[in-house]
Amino acid sequence: MIPFLRLTPGEDNADVRVAVDRVIARGWFVLGPELDAFEREFAAAAGAQHAVGVGTGTDALAIAFRALGIGPGDEVITSPLSAAYSALAVMMAGARPVFADIDPERLTIDAAAVEAAITRRTAAIMPVHLYGQPADMVALSAVAERRGLGIVEDCCQAHLATCAGRPVGSYGVAAAYSFYPTKNLGALGDGGALTTNDPAIAARARRLRNGGQTDRYHHDEFGVNSRLDELQAAILRARLGWLPSWTARRRALAARYRMALEASGTIDVPLEFDAGHVYHLFPIRSGARDALQARLRAAGIETLIHYPVPIPQQPALANERPDDCPIATRVCAEILSLPLHPGLPDEAIDRVADAIQTARIES
Q1: Which residue, of 12, 86, 153, 283, has the greatest Cβ tally within 10 A?
Q2: pLDDT value at position 305?
């Protein structure tokens, strides 16, 4: 069996255990020195002035919107192809998500579609750097500047990716990251962070994550309870040093997939548009996706679908009156994610590629 991923610590196991033991010995578990240190270290790695650790990547987005003053009556333009949490975060802030269709090749939000979706209620643009592939931030930034809008980047699947040589997260006024265990930089539980270069946004985000407190038991505004705990912060600190080598391994495995699959001509492999792609996932597209997935399962290869339903078609979004996004709808019927993680051996990539070619030939 080739599993889709592995979540137990591997080569980082000793570092993770040292980090956990350090926190337990200290006896400080919330808003302590581990979080302070991780926020400094992650901000530096991401090319930002400030990082604010929160409970989840979803909270990071929602708190970023609130810190920017975005709420009821406002609209945020975002991608229909993502985990639904991207749009739910907009709703958590009280705003309305508006969906602009995706580029059929890049699979991230299309800048021309974004510009067409702008109304007088539009408060921000939220591109999603999907599967580790940066959205076209050069084009999106031009739209935002031309229309006087801010950008909040969803970097939850793109830790330390770059676009046109510049870190993702640095194009917008704020950015959000998830440390869910499956992410390139994952905790052993939930976690998230928002980054920004604006000290006022960072300060308000710190208040909002802690119930709106300015001082112990003094709440100046309505906040939430969303704090990255000390154990997860320590684990993330331990793993942050491993991230560059893990990213290099992901890129090497992705290159091996590309060489095998593109040479065979048996399957549609989405293009790599930027060398800063960090390959959180490796998706392929097939008009017979479900049959292909079944054949791979029979061959002992686990695959997943990211994502089977476009966000505008989710029942939770029905009251938001979302427009149809036909390209995203088509992609959702074709997309299939292949196993890819730093612990995967080269031979597994070859076996998956062979199985795909065999399945296509037999079909």
Answers
A1: 153
A2: 98
- If one counts every other C-beta atom within 10 angstroms of the C-beta of residue 182, the result is 15
Q: Which residues of the chain are modeled with pLDDT < 50? A: none
From residue 301, alpha-carbon distances to 5, 197, 229, 347 in Å are 11, 43, 35, 13
Task: Tell me the C-alpha to C-alpha distance, in Å, between residue 41 and each of 37, 57, 236.
Answer: 6, 18, 10
Instruction: Report helix, strand or coil for 193.
Output: strand
**In this structure, how many other beta carbons lie within 10 angstroms of the beta carbon of residue 114?**
27
CA 78 to centroid of chain Cα atoms? 13
Q: What is the pLDDT at residue 262?
A: 85
Structure letter (DSSP) for residue 311: G
Residues 282-310: tens digit of each pLDDT = 999 999 999 999 999 999 999 999 999 99
Q: What is the separation of C-alpha 142 from the centre of its chain, rounded to a whole number of angstroms?
A: 22
Task: Give tens-digit pLDDT for 90-138.
Answer: 999 999 999 999 999 999 999 999 999 999 999 999 999 999 999 999 9
Helix axes 230-240, 13-26, angle to 10 degrees: 150
Note the pLDDT of residue 323.
87
Q: Which of 1, 78, 82, 53 is nearest to 281 (CA)?
A: 82
What Rg do the C-alpha atoms of the chain give, in angstroms?
Answer: 20
Q: Which domains does the chain have, with CATH numbers?
A: 13-100+107-240 (3.40.640.10), 243-362 (3.90.1150.10)
| Residues whose CB falls within 8 Å of the CB of residue 203, separated by 6 or more in sequence, listed in order | none
In whole angstroms, give the CA distance from residue 33 to residue 23: 9
Read off the pTM.
0.97
Six-digit token string for 93: 């802030």
- Measure the CA–CA gap between 302 and 286, rounded to whole angstroms: 16
Q: Shortest CA distance to 74 belongs to which of 99, 93, 98, 95?
A: 95
Alpha carbon distance 348, 352 (integer Å): 6
